[in-house]
Amino acid sequence: MMQWETVIGLEVHVQLATRSKIFSGASTAFGAEPNTQACAVDLGLPGVLPVLNEAAVSMAVQFGLAVHAQIPEVSVFDRKNYFYPDLPKGYQTSQMYHPIVGPGEVEVSLEDGSTKPIRIHHAHLEEDAGKSLHEDFHGMTGIDLNRAGTPLLEIVSEPDMRNAKEAAAFLKAIHSIVTYLGISNGNMAEGSMRCDVNVSVRPQGQASLGTRAEVKNVNSFRFVERAIAFEVERQIELIEDGGKVIQETRLYDPERDETRSMRTKEEANDYRYFPCPDLLPVVLDQAYVEHLRGQLPELPAAKRERFERELGLSAYDAGVLSASRDMAEYFEEVKTVCGDAKQAANWVQGELSGALNRENLVITQSPVSARQLGELVSRVMDDTISGKAAKQVFQALWNGQGHSADDVIEAQGLKQVTDSGAIEAMIDQVIADSPAQVAQYCDAEPEKRGKMIGYFVGQVMKASRGTANPQQVNGLLKEKLDALL
Amino acid sequence: MHDKTVTQLAAALAGGELSSRELTYHYLQRIERLDGKLNSFITVTAEQALKAADAADQARAKGNAGLLTGVPLALKDIFCTEGVKTSCGSKMLDTFIAPYNATVVEKLNAAGTVSLGKTNMDEFAMGSSNESSFYGPVKNPWDLSAVPGGSSGGSAAAVAAGLVPAAMGTDTGGSIRQPAAFCGITGLKPTYGRVSRYGIIAYASSLDQAGPMARTAEDCAHLLNHIAGHDLRDSTSLARGVPDYLETLDAPLSGLKIGLPKEYFGDGLDADVAAAVREAVRVYESLGATVREVSLPHTHYAIPAYYVIAPAEASSNLARYDGVRFGHRCENPLDLTDLYKRSRDEGFGDEVKRRILIGTHTLSEGFFDAYYKKAQQVRRLIRQDFLDAFEEVDVLMGPASPSPAFDLGAKKDPVSMYLQDIYTISVNLAGIPGISVPAGFVGNRPVGLQILGTHFAEAQLLNVAHKFQQATDWHRQRPAFAKENA
Is the keyword Lipid biosynthesis in the record (chain B) (predicted)? Predict the structure, then answer.
């Protein structure tokens, strides 16, 4: 049977987190009443003119610098002409021939801990369209132009991805970069990041690319994988059945988990691009670009490397903890407070992530702050509480019982008992209460006694309500039991 | 009263000889009595005008009057005016009430001027005769069987007939200068970027420019003082200081170097128009100017280049008229495509459709390089022609139009209409300023002398035009129409 290779390229639309729109002063806030955030310019009223928002330019350049791209001195806005009811001017202002960000590259982390460079073809600025609302209008369509004019950065990759996982990893890397830079909130559910996927297949070893299909409306990391999986299977089956893939635009339907044809190449619009005469070319001087370069934060790839190299984290931990800026900042604060990177990583990855996942929360919504968690970890490290008690403290903090780990430890009496006199008294009591077990212990083969001691440790811990230091209990028990032999 | 210039009216208002209310009322009366024959106004805003006049009089009483406070004027119906119908001469916008003021309108309001209403124009400023207006053609007050020129024909006719002392026009390929010439008034097209385009309904964005139309260059200077300048809402307006255009009006012309482009005096130019222009040049010589012939070698490519670039931009600018949000919408659309097709088919006139089709075609895949790109190359050559000429001479002079006003209905073939703009169109392509001043008559129809300067030479053009008007009285001639109905 023929071996097939999949070739994938992505176009990622990122809504930039500017306060006002790319060509008008109207607000970009999400979720307002329809058409309350569309001014004369957004409505495309006769006579209005666009004025470029400098914040959008700065954000695009920051992205370019973050992916090591060339930043051309001059970029030009073009008009992409087509009719659609939610496109008020009958054209979208975009950048066709001279984009603001030139070729660049992103390192993406794969699940096996390895990384792969994916080339960026270019990224360009454009305005978003409005939304067509098909429900509640009795067979008619409503138009909401609040989103019209929201700045988008369209990031176009080279066809460097070879499977769905790589594509999802690329999308995650872009998500991570734009949220690190703070140029987008990256909220995929609200459409702040949207993705079109170009997929083709070719026989393994063939140099030329197969005919591609462009799949639109792939708006989550999971859907990217599923849409690609469906599309690859469809194309391979088609070819193996003697058919041919046609160049077309397809729509991903997440409910049915399939892609459907929207329009073929023949039906495609002729967008009649030409330079927008209402906007001057954007000229970026070197000083401006260097100023932005100097202000770039530490980016995910650099952070991941530092976590591995300086903090000694595993590749996996470093990858997960650097994937989002919020996560990385949380982790770093825990680490700073408790002073131990590995302990901090264990707690953030373990107890905290588990709790967040259970309640479907993101790190910024965590009821336990990084400082609280850091202090909690410190208390484990300085033997104030046992690991078991620490979980209790964490749960209490999660539930909002107490302001700090110390509060909870104090209130619930979880402070670890290290006074050997107190522990010895408890041990003596347990030995006195368990004559049968003591007899068994003494009769047992010496090599089996190690296991049997667990019973006594459990009883002592129970008696101390978890506050006795387990190592200490273990040592003292062994001494006392062995003395009975 | 209606024979007076803006300058004279401003002085009379300042001297308390008349009030803005009297003046405004007088002009409104004239419009009501006479405009039925001219059709120069689409909308007369009598009520708002009288209110504005009262406000101007009050401001003056309080000592808050500027030079133009209380002076009536009119606006081409291409300027968006808040709360007032802004039709652009089209059925498409017959019901459109603009919710905001164009920057030019804002500035004129701030100057205290009183708008009497919105003047007729070729539909979407596409035309050279005012015959493409949805509201019917405008008549030339000098001869009611002649066109007033276009596209700012309503503004030109209204000023010439004494229905208003001055009006604002726009000029994309000659739409201020040619109607000014046909109607015997003075019209200035400023440098591209000198006056904000915000709120001016776009025809061809890289060529459109607003300017004043009045009796005299001095009046135009008054108005330009108020409308020129950088506007943050128009990225193509230039951040460059605005001089006081009145200050340099009287500068002597001795030593002025005038160039006569030989291409502007070739075939197709009416002999009487040529004679009038040459006579005007002799006046300049008598004022101390020297004259030489120059060449603008790419002149004959101007019309083809213009009719690629302007329709290309127009096809995109006019896409927003789709029946969805504002403007004409067809009855009972079957579906979205039907809504688009019928709304646009019913809302646009033939000339607009023609230019949308041309523009759509020239931007299409496979044609873009051959048409649009080539036209932009030509545009650069034309601009360079002018820059080269201005190395040698200070100003260029020639006719504003190859003939005086032609008869209504005379130009049936679009191309013969397009050829009307042969002397004006390259000026827009180059982005330089130009002014047309009255310089004689052919029969009873006025002839316009066009004076061109380099970028931002408005002060010089106004000075050169003003000195001519000090030496001649062509600009003081009034059509019989205005006199008989006085």
Answer: no
CA–CA distance, A349 with A316 (Å, rounded to integer):
11
- Whole-model pTM? 0.90
User: In this complex, which of A40, A46, A49 lies closest to B234 when CB atoms are compared?
Assistant: A49
> Residue A136: what are its φ and ψ, rounded to 5°?
65, 20
Residue A113 pLDDT greater than 90, yes or no: no
Model confidence over B410-467: pLDDT tens digits?
998 888 889 889 999 999 999 999 999 999 999 999 999 999 999 999 999 999 999 9
State how far the Cα of B55 lies from the Cα of A458, in Å rounded to an integer. Answer: 95
Could you tell me which chain B residue has the CA closest to the CA of A79? Answer: B316
A48, A91, A278 member nearest B236 (Cβ): A278
pLDDT at A264: 78
DSSP 3-state of B339:
helix
Q: Which helix (H) or strand (E) holds A116?
A: strand A115-127
Cβ–Cβ < 8 Å for A308, A291: no
State whether residue B378 is helix, strand or coil. helix
Domain boundaries, chain B: 6-256+461-484
How close A290 comes to chain B (CA, Å)?
25
Portion of chain A with pLDDT greater than 90, in percent: 71
d(C-alpha B102, C-alpha B446), whole Å? 32
> Pick from A196, A216, A167, A124: which is nearest to A6 by CA?
A167
- Give the C-alpha separation, B75 to B84, whole Å: 11
Mutation for testing the B interface, residue in A83, A89, A96, A97 having most B CBs under 10 Å: A83
Range list of H helices, B84-146: 103-110
Q: CATH number of A420-484: 2.60.120.260, 2.40.400.10, 2.60.120.200, 1.10.10.410? A: 1.10.10.410
pLDDT above 70 for B485: no
CB-based contact B235 A50, cutoff 8 Å: yes
Q: Does domain B6-256+461-484 have CATH number 3.90.1300.10?
A: yes
Of the residues B151, B152, B237, B343, only one is catalytic, namely B151
Going from N- to C-terminal start, the domains of chain A cover: 4-291, 298-412, 420-484
Whether B341 sits among the annotated catalytic residues: the reply is: no
Count CB atoms within 10 A of the CB of residue A285: 9
